[in-house]
Please model this.
Amino acid sequence: MRAGDQLYSILWLYNRTGEEWLLDLAHKTHRKSARWDTGLINRHNVNIAQAFREPAIYWMLTGKPEHQAATEKVWRDVRDKWGRVPGGMFGADEDARDRYTGPRQMIETCGMVEEMLSDELLVSITGDSIWAERCEDVAFNSLPAAFTSDMKCLRYLTAPNMPQSDHANKAPGIENGGDMLGMNPHGHRCCQHNGGHGWPYFNNHLWYATAGDGLAAYMYAPCTVTAKVAAGVEVTIEEQTRYPFEEVIEFVVKPAKPVKFPLYLRIPTWCENPTLSVNRMIADENLQPGKVVCIDREWKPGDRVLLQLPMPIRVKTWIGNRDTVSVSRGPLTYSLLIKEKYTQYAGTDEWPAYDIFPDSPWNYGLTIDPAKPTDSLKVETAEWPANDRPFTLKAPVRIVAKARRIPAWTLDRRGLVNEVAPSPVKSSEPIESVVLIPMGAARLRISAFPRIDNVTGKEWPPPPKPKYIASASHCWDGDTVDALCDDEVPKHSNDRGLDRFTWWPRKGGVEWVQFDFDMPMAVASAQVYWFDDTPSKGGCKLPKSWRVLYKDGKEWKPVEKPSGYPVARDSFCEVKFQEVTTSALRVEVQLEKDYSGGILEWRVK
Ligand SMILES: [Zn+2]
Model:
């Protein structure tokens, strides 16, 4: 899946040694790799973020345009379906799933840092500044929020909308069961290792060598670079800035002696009327957002380059994903400021692990006029933090917005935010001023907002309520009994695209599931769609046998005259029986020896 990493290393080594056999090895590595040049071939978030760059890396060897195009296509296909959300990433918690595309779906910390590294390498391969913009989007809006601000703890998964972040199970709303959201210095294994490369690699790629023995800055951050440029002259450039919070970037150029070399700088797509000067003289009057500008001149010690990138507020509507809106300014996207209450749930005194609970209301929609979206938004700046940690609730830039609360927007029973309803929506709550802070500064966040419009909007629908009260002899922590009657029809018995119920890890015994009805109900048939993941080597199989029981007073009795109890994959298995009026019904199964079992949907009539 991720053999493109090796391909990159082989080419790196070839560039230093010129050993021909390395090129054969490179071709062979590509042949033996998963075929990312044919499209999105896997749904695992880290596989995608790490491996989609493979065709573009191979392009360095083939020069075929289709290899670069394949990388771009996978990036776009993933964003079109799961990435219509702020923060630069996509919902894949652990895998991207068909019907889970909203802003509460999450991304793994490993996925963020691999996406950043891919983008950083793609800048160097393609020279296309769009990859720098994509990298900054993740680096500034997603990565900081995956860690506590002191970087002692991280969580496995982070979403654009997540007003609570506690260690309790959130499946099946997100795919993974168990502790995924606890801020923990000890847990979340892979992310502890991978997460550490996010900022160092970002730092490594703040400067690139260019053709013509020059230097290029595509991503911006305060830093110093020392490099050999034309004629082997050593130059140090100090980059002084509070970007992405501020608009001005100053470069102080210090060559060992005067030397001519090209300096390339990226002009981001989002800026308006950017300016560039060298020693206070306009260096280029025709700067174009989305392009790279080149200053090719003789540089002298102490030359100062001033790049000003004005950051207008922008409002984006996520068309095709519930039409939520998000607010950005420059490379930063903004999230509702939710007060955070940290509660230790594990760890040690020195290295505590935290749940974070909301300590202020979070269920707001923005009142934004689509014709003049930025009129109701106002930028405010605050003191730069003395500890140089800008990604906290005291962020140095904030935006004040108008909003109304939406009382029907709640958390689900597991503390996962209920999915946002399609905008616009109505709210009769009063208009309030709310504060937005950079998404990267918000560990609790609403950053894909519903838009309030009391003329054209719809009422917020009540949270989905299961048809019957479902229960079971046992339910796996990552599954839910509510899947039994959620009216989601599976495509086949191994369908992972919807919520399911299983008795996992119980094997081989007699187990049951039960519906309780609000009122006694007449029933004469039951249809069961069995879960069976043995085709993908799972531990749940069709049951050996089953039967239907009904409640008669306090007793459970088998239904009479059953038409038969078929057991089959990939369809509903129906039994008809003599009608009975009852307050509760059960399906009782005998599991196969050494196997567990499960049900995707159970209908009664
Ligand atoms: Zn991970």
Q: What stands out?
A: The mean pLDDT is 96. The pocket of zinc ion is lined by residues 108-110, 190-191, 194 (CB under 6 Å). Residues 4-204 form one domain.
